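writing this on my phone so excuse typos. first protein, seq and then structure
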Amino acid sequence: MSDGPVFPLPEYLRRQSALLSQLDIHSILLIPTNDMKIRSNDVHFPFRASSDILYLTGWDEPKALFVGHHDGEEWKTTLFVRDNNELAERWEGRRVGVSGAQERWPVDNARDWESRLDALEGWIQTKSTVYIQQGHDQDLDTLVNRLVTTKTRERTVSGKGPISIVDPSPLLAELRIRKSESEISIMREAAIIASNAHTHAMRNTKGESNESEIQSLIESTFMKNHSVPSYGSIVAGGDNATILHYHANRDVVEDGSLILIDAGCEVQGYASDITRTWPVGGKFSQVQRDLYEIVLTAQIEAIEMCRPGNTWSDPHKAAVRSLSKGLVEIGVLDCSIEEAIGKNYDGRVREFFMHGTSHSIGLDVHDVGVIKPNGDDDGRLLEPGMVLTVEPGLYFPEWVETLNIDPKFAGIGIRIEDDVLITDGDPEVLTASCPKTVVDIENTVGKDV
């Protein structure tokens, strides 16, 4: 049972006000939390609240609904939650309950979740627009759809009642894309824990190992620091590292191979996301080192572009240019650097670097926010408070015959990823404490074995 929301109440109230001020007073806002997900039969996955209800209220229990409605004078907020139930709590854990929510959460009123449909029926019928995130509460969706579509003589005569349904998610996404100082503080904590986890795995691995053993080193560090994985960890040795979203995490990693680990943690709802690639034996071979230095140089140049006023695409373009130059220079690509880059940054380098360089990060590891409005290739301008990943990579899958990969490069996958805060000046790398230069990695791997 939570003692209260993560941030001081005024921060949540500012967020609510920023959202509600964009809505017509003849509308109603409905933000339900996530529903429980079945893992198998009657066993559920661990519950994780919706990021938007966390953003607006800090409420992290199941079966909750945030409502904003205007009473003719001002906006009023209500949080529908599960009330206390001694028997249920003995099985499933303590609940805050209605009284606790009323006392300690940033809303005008708290009410029993079971009463939400009866209360909303009257409220919705006085409004013209329903802002709702659908797909989380089937009974709520059914109610809203019925009230919007039902035709009655009274509605025909008076013209009153809801006539449209609008998804408020884009409005919330635009608010969430810029982080407050309080949010950034928690993201720094998540970044440090994840950095320490990667470092712990490096220090405790030497020679042949197993992907699952290395995963346990990472995730045990998360748990010891009161965090959870922010996504399914990728622990990929050798040729497995050429699969972008590899998740089996059970193969032997042979001495002399590289291991690619993409793993981050979540602290109080906020994610970190780090990738490091390192030799399990402690030393890069010359070929591994050459490719690694190309990726590292590309990442450094991309991070340098993470400044206010630059576009969202500028870090990616810097990475593509740098990777192209490096691959041409070592003979992986037998073309000009311009051909490797391509007219629209879609040249031959994309044979070995298939993904984008960045994504937003925050309450979701792939956080919300439109980054290329109206399909603009350059994307929006970067602003202070935005946090994004920077993660170039190179992948040489031995099993893809159409690429005609030189055998000395085959089976190597390298990605380096950091979380970067846009500031008024230089970019702040939140994950900077995690080793990533060749020297630092070689001085770390196996040191506690």
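second protein below, same order as before
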Amino acid sequence: MSQENIFLNKNNLMNKVVARNGKLGFDACEILSAAIHAVDPYTCTFKRVHLQNRKIFIDQNVFDLNQFKRVFLIGFGKAAVPMARAVIDKLGSVLFQSMVITKDPKFMAENGLKNKLRVYLGGHPLPSNDSINSTQLILHNLPEMTKEDLVIVVISGGGSALFTNPVRGITLDDLQALNRILLKSGADIEEINTLRKHLDQVKGGGLAVRLQPASVATLILSDVIGDRLDVIASGPTVPDPTNYQDAIDVLDRYAVLDQVPRAILSHLEKGRDGLVPETLKPGQIPTKKNLNILVGTNFHAAEAALEKAKALGYYATIITSALTGLTEHVASFIAGIAYTALAYNQPVSRPACIIFGGEPTVNVTGDGLGGRNMDLALKLVPRLAEKHGVLFISFASDGEDGPTDAAGAAIDGFVFREGMEELGLDINDYINNNDSYHYHESLGGLIKTGATGTNVNDLMLLLIN
């Protein structure tokens, strides 16, 4: 097995701020690199699938090929191709058909892999015409399923946008407008996907319904806080515990009911009133016929960071892998932990490596450029000013922080003074305009890795000498 998919090494993480922190900075690169490599999608999938004596083993589940005439592979997400490649490397001889949708055109080079794989492209973070066309191609090319079919599904981050088939009456423009409104509002991924599930035929268990009565085994690389299966990629193979009223409540909670396209609100109201069918609900498909298996998570990455930090001589701890909330609140929380570590050697002694995982949200009020990791780091700059011997990095595990070419940013105790005194920057202007990208760019704090090849939310490191 030499097919690791991760496009990242420790040198990709280096920048001016990281480098000037010497060993602390170099160690931070080693720790983050170890974390990302631990959730390589090819490796995470490859080790879960085996073929022996005409039996397919997926995790702890056994599928006897004497009972199945056809085995299908479909997938969608930023890591769909490497995950599919792992399955093909293990099961290629028995696969009847393999089709995936992904974002990065570089993966088109693997179209036709071993004469098995078809690769289609879609859009992300907003769904595109390519997303819809590719989804409909996969659905059209799948034959009617029988009880003698086994379908293996591989899902990774970005699946909600890439695998899209809107309900009748909802257009792509409607979905894109809704996505923009929700992202700007500060709604979290669970809330956003509650809406997506009720506006799309393949989400909220819709794919599982389409694949019946086949047996379905889904391998999932999680990009969702808490790893809720019904939320990852909007749960195409998972029963949906939410309903139409829940979706309307999300819009009401963020006071955007009057902003969403009329067709969307009309559909949700019809669903609430029982005029259109609900999504798949728990118990409607037997669990043994519809398995969903996590193969990689944010916590797995955090664990790898922990072990690498300890090996480098740090006292290390994971605070949480479910950190969420608005960036200003998350910044206050992390700053409080930094102050406690500096004053009292808690929660761990120094040298300390304190690890967080999760995905904060940004309340967008300005028209600047940035992403949630850069915004979090920006709001920590004044809080960590003059705290020497402290290095903080916030990093999007997929290498893409918002609509930018950066993966995140690094700050230390010198950034605030350097920006104010040497460059004349008023940090509040950048905060108020949501322009974290250009602030960090000016200070040499941007981290640019390009796409890493995986996606398990964000990782934050707080290193203290």
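The first helix runs from residue 16 to 19. thats all i got for now
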